[in-house]
Design goal:
Helices cover about 35% and strands about 25% of the residues. It is an alpha/beta fold. It has three domains: about 240 residues, Rossmann fold (3-Layer(aba) Sandwich), CATH 3.40.50; about 160 residues, P-loop containing nucleotide triphosphate hydrolases (Rossmann fold); about 70 residues, no CATH class. Helix 4 packs across helix 5 and helix 14 packs across helix 15. The longest helix has 16 residues. The protein is globular.
Length: about 500
């Protein structure tokens, strides 16, 4: 039998007292698509960092074509034909697309000692790679001008530009629209035909099931199962990931009071000429804003909260009108958990205690501060209470948020608001990059908060999530409400019909 293209043999890695990987072995054949699945903290990212030369294993070996490899830096792995596409974008906004693609391996012309850059050749090659990923933009476009979905496609184009034999994709569709995700899946099929091996990491199990030749399951740093053929089944994947059978999540009707808590009247988002937006969210109700990427869902939340300027209209909370100032919104009981928890939702290098009490410290009482001094006793007791309430997995309230899994980071981003007396909770993509076990816990939290009387407004791109948590759906298209669907009217077809409507 010929040697597999890639082989990981008994790879182990510890970070202090934390065992990230324990004796993990994996083979990847040429032209094969395998998916690597597991809950956050299962070891997927660490394994891929070992493969890409970012992290050195304590034990074990990486082989290419049967030859043992020892990376001293990521460049060694790239030269060996391994490209890693990170979930967190690693592009340089101050450079053009072409400059990003060829950064560190620029094409030159003339004598080598002159070092003249061959910008024309780099632009030509960049255009070809952009065409392969379906992105029609000039290679001279500064990356800072691209939306996040286009930046993700540039990351993929950069991986292709190194002529990789193995491409590792870590949550590549998390920021893509349905059309862009479909183009990526078609691209994966073409790469497979060309003999490129794909290692695909995603929490979107529908994608995993669709594209995988084989699924490898990690749990607690160990390889626990290989699924092939008829075994590639949603329920079996979930059971393998979490080590237990998860009950199917079915939305249970909530007995809301019917009294409106959040009222939005004639709100103009982005400009004075924008179509006015009107809707209400009742006490104990969960309303989802859905629509295509770029439809304006996030902008609506940010305008209500006061992050973006309000160009007209009124917002009321419990019959109290608010002006559009962030501090006034907070005082009125409105919270916003943003989509990008690492950039705008958390102080990622600070500890859980400081993050969990961050907002409450800005609305101090004598029990929280003494003069200019913060009460550490109050901080610790408040943080510990939230850790218990949200079941945040952390060694202590002094652990750095950066050390937590994505699901637990998201819980901390939510926890900092629960230290206040909330009336309205707004969540933007609350489970982006979160594993299926943590998703179920976050859904339970949302349901519990609604049952306690909060009005909840959620932006979500996952239809399964919308059907799991929402009492009502508002479909956003081109910055306006294209339609409203009650619980009994919700379907993917009905939502998509409204989302693409032009009137």
């Amino acid at each position: 039998m010929p040697e597999p293209l890639l082989r990981l043999i008994s790879v182990s890695k510890r970070f202090g007292n934390t065992r990230a990987l324990n004796d993990v072995s994996l083979n990847v054949e040429q032209g094969e698509v395998i998916s690597l699945v597991g809950e956050n903290g299962a070891g997927k990212s660490t394994l891929m960092k070992v493969l890409a030369g970012i992290v050195s294993p304590d034990h074990g070996q990486v082989q290419i074509d049967g030859v043992a490899c020892q990376w001293t830096c990521p460049g060694d792995a790239i030269k060996a034909g391994i490209a890693l596409i990170h979930q967190e974008l690693s592009l340089h906004d101050n450079l053009t697309i072409a400059e990003n693609l060829f950064l560190g391996r620029e094409l030159t012309r003339g004598p080598d000692w002159l070092g003249w850059l061959d910008r024309s050749a780099m632009r030509t090659d960049t255009t070809q790679f952009l065409d392969r990923v379906g992105l029609s933009v000039s290679p001279d476009t500064p990356v800072s001008e691209l939306p996040i979905a286009s930046k993700q496609l540039v990351e993929i184009a950069r991986a292709l530009s190194v002529r990789a034999r193995v491409v590792v994709m870590d949550e590549p569709t998390s920021s893509l629209s349905e059309d862009e995700a479909e183009r990526l899946i078609q691209l994966i099929g073409k790469l497979k035909e060309d003999g490129v091996a794909i290692i695909y990491i995603s929490h979107r199990l529908a994608e995993v099931i669709r594209i995988s030749d084989r699924i490898e399951v990690l749990r607690d740093g160990c390889h626990v199962r290989t699924l092939t053929g008829d075994q590639i089944d949603h329920d079996l994947i979930v059971e393998s990931m979490v080590g237990r059978e998860l009950a199917s999540r079915h939305h249970a009707r909530r007995a809301g009071s019917g009294k409106s808590m959040l009222v939005v009247e004639d709100l103009r988002v982005g400009s004075r000429s924008a179509t006015p937006i009107c809707f209400q969210v009742a006490v104990g109700e969960v309303v989802a804003l859905v629509g295509l990427v770029g439809s304006g869902r996030t902008e609506i939340l940010e305008t209500i909260f006061g992050v973006r300027p309000r160009w007209g209209g009124r917002v009321r909370v419990a019959d109290q009108e608010i002006s559009g100032d962030v501090n006034e919104s907070i005082r009125s009981g409105i919270a916003l958990v943003p989509e990008d928890r690492k950039q705008t939702g958390l102080l990622i290098q600070s500890d859980v205690r400081d993050n969990a009490t961050l907002v409450a410290m800005g609305h101090t009482t004598p029990t929280k501060t003494r003069g200019r001094w913060i009460s550490r006793k109050w901080q610790s007791s408040t943080a510990d209470g939230l850790i218990s309430q949200l079941r945040i997995k952390t060694a202590s309230n002094r652990s750095a948020v950066a050390s937590l899994s994505g699901g637990n980071q998201q819980k901390v981003a939510l926890a900092k608001w629960l230290a206040l007396d909330l009336r309205v909770l707004m969540l933007d993509e609350p489970t982006r990059g979160v594993d299926i076990g943590a998703k179920a816990e976050i859904y339970e939290l949302i349901d519990g908060l609604a049952r306690d009387g909060l009005a909840v407004l959620v932006v979500s791109s996952e239809m399964e999530e919308v059907f799991a948590i929402a009492d009502r759906v508002l479909v956003i298209s081109q910055g306006r409400i294209a339609g409203e669907l009650g619980r009994d009217e919700m379907s993917e077809e009905a939502i998509m019909h409204l989302a693409v409507s032009q009137r």
